[in-house]
Amino acid sequence: MFGQFFLFIVVLLIYTSYRPPEAPPLDVLEAVGLFAASLIGFAAAAKWSFRRLTLHLQRLDLFRADDLLQRHQTRWEITAILLFALDVWALHLPAFTQRWAPFRVFPTLEAVLFLAGFLLHLIWVWTWVYSIQRKIFGNPLDLREFLKSQMFFGIPVYLPWLALSFVMDILSALPFEQPAKWLQSPPGQTTMFFVFLTGAGIFGPFLIQKAWRCTPLENGWMRNRIERLCRKAGFSYAEILYWPIYGGKMITAGVMGLVKRFRYLLVTQALLEQLLPEEIDAVIAHEIGHIKKKHLLFYLLFFAGYLLISYALFDVLLYALLYIRAFLDLPNIVGTDPLGRLSTIWTVCSILLFLVYFRYGFGFFMRNFERQADAYVFTLFESARPLISTLRKIALFSYQPIDNPNWHHFSIAERIAFLARCEADHSWIRRHDRKIRFGLVCYALVLFAFGSLAYSFNFGDTGKRLNQHMIEHILVKEIERNPDDPKLQAFLGDVLQSRKAYGPAKEAYEKAIALAPENAVALNNLAWMLATCEDRRYFDPKTAVTLAERAVRIQDTPQFLDTLAEAYYAAGRTEEAVAAGKRALQFATGDRRYFEAQLRKFQQAFSSMKPPDGTGGKGQ
C-alpha cells in the first residue's frame, strides 16, 4: 500500500508542476506517435525482463524469490515513472490536451487522463508480477482480482486528491473573479489544503471503505469476541468490516478514522481463518493501540508539516541549485526559457524533498508507532506471546524474510525481539514511549523553525530583499560567464522589472534584443513595461507598439497578442486594441478570465473614446 502511496504522489508532483512552453517542439501527431511507441516498447521490455526473471526465481527458495520479485517490480515501477516524466516534460503532451475545452474548464479531467496513462504502464508490470506469483507461489487470486487489489491500494491517495481537485475546478469556474484569485494565491491554496486535509481525515475513511467495497463482519461468536475486546479497551468505532484486499487472502488488519462516526476496524478473511482466537485478539489490540496512542492524528499533522517544510525550503533549495551552472545548460525539452527550467528544478526539488521527508522523517515515526502499537497488547493482556506467534505466521504465509525491514516497519525479527524484551521487563515500554515523545518534541521544534523561515522568506521584508538579491546575483554571475546569451539578459530584465527597477530593466531588455533581434520574449516583455510603466520617464506607448508588433510577427501567442492590445490601448488606438484582444482571447487556453477582463477594458475604452491613463494591467 505504501509503495502505491509513493508512486502516485511522485506522479502527481510531476504532472502538476508542468509548465507548457510557448510552442511545443513536436506537433501533436509526432508526440502521440512517440508516446504509443514508448508504451509498446515498455510493455515488450517488461515482458522479456520478467520472463528471464522467472527462470532465475525457479532456482531459489520461496523467501529469496519473493524478495527478488518485489525488487524487480519496484525497478519497473520506477521506470514507469521516468517514462511518465518524459511523456509530460519531453513530449509536452499536456500542451496539446489543454487545447480541449472540457479540460480548460475542468483541468482535473485532464489529470485523470494522464493518471490513466501512467496506470496503463503499471498494469503491464502487475500482470507479469502476477504471472510469476501464480507460477511460483501459487497465488490463489485470478488476474482480475489481483489487478483490482493493486489499483485499490492507491485509493487513499488519489481519491482525496480527485475530490480536492474537482472542488477547486468548480470554485474556479464560478463567475466570481475574487474567489478564483484567492484560490490561486499561496494563502488561498494553503488554507484550502488545510481545510481539505481536515475534511479528508474525518470523512475520507467513509469514502475509502465504500471504494474498497468492504462489507460488515457478520454476527457470530467472532464478532462478539472482537466487540467485547473493544469495549474492554474503551475503543469506539462505526463498524467492523471485512477487508477484501487481495481477495481477503492476506493475513492483515487495519483501522482508519479520526472520529467514532467514521472509524472502521478492518479484518481479512484469511486473518479470521488462519489465526487462533487469542492471536486475533492480539492483532485487534495492536490496531486499537494506533487509536489510543493517537497515531492517525499524528499522521495527519505530518502531512501538514510536509506542506510547511516544503513551503519554507522551496526558495532555499531553488537558490542552491541555481548556483549550479548546469541549470542554464538544460536542453530545451524542459522549457524554452529560464522559467521553464525553474519549473523543472522546482519539480526535482519537490520530489527529492517528498522522498526524503517521508522515507526518513515520516518513516521514523511510522516504524516506532508500529512498535508502540505492538506494545499496547500489554495494556489488555498479560503476555504478547499470541502476537509473536502471529508475526511468525505472517512471515510464513507471505514468504517474507523474517529479518527483512522496510521504511515503515521494523523487520518481523526486530518486532519479535522487542516484544520479548517487554515480556521480560515492562520498563522497555516506558522507554519507547519516552523515545516517541522526545521525537515529537524535536519535530515540533523543527516545524517552528521552518514556519519562522517560511514567514520570513515569503512575507517579511528580509525575504523579499534576499529573493531579489539572490536572483540578481545568480544572473549577473551567469551573464559575466556568458555575456552574449540573450536569454540571460532577458531574464535579468524580467527580474528588474518585477522590482520596478525600470531603467536597468530597459537596458537589459535592449541588450537581449541587440544580441537576438528575433527574441520574441524580450520584445514582448519590454513592450509590456513601456506600455504599462507607472514611471512616466519610461512610459513609451509608441515604442511599445513597435516592439509588440515585432513580437507577434515572430510568434502570435495569446500572451504576446495581449501585450500588443495593451500597447495599442496605451497609445490611444482602442479599435486596434479590441481587435488584438479578441485574437488573444480566441487563442487563449486554460483560465481565460484575465483575457476576457482585458477585452472588456478595451471595448469600454473604444466605446467611450476616452484617452487611457497609460497605467494598470497585468504583467507577462
From TrEMBL:
Keywords: Cell membrane, Hydrolase, Membrane, Metal-binding, Metalloprotease, Protease, TPR repeat, Transmembrane, Transmembrane helix, Zinc. It holds the Pfam family Peptidase_M48. TPR repeats lie at residues 486-519. The keyword Membrane applies. GO terms for molecular function: metal ion binding; metalloendopeptidase activity. GO terms for biological process: proteolysis. This is Peptidase. Its cofactor is Zn(2+). The chain crosses the membrane at residues 31-50, 78-97, 109-130, 151-171, 191-208, 296-324, 344-362, 438-457. Residues 216-419 form the Peptidase M48 domain. PANTHER family: PROTEASE HTPX, PROTEASE HTPX HOMOLOG.
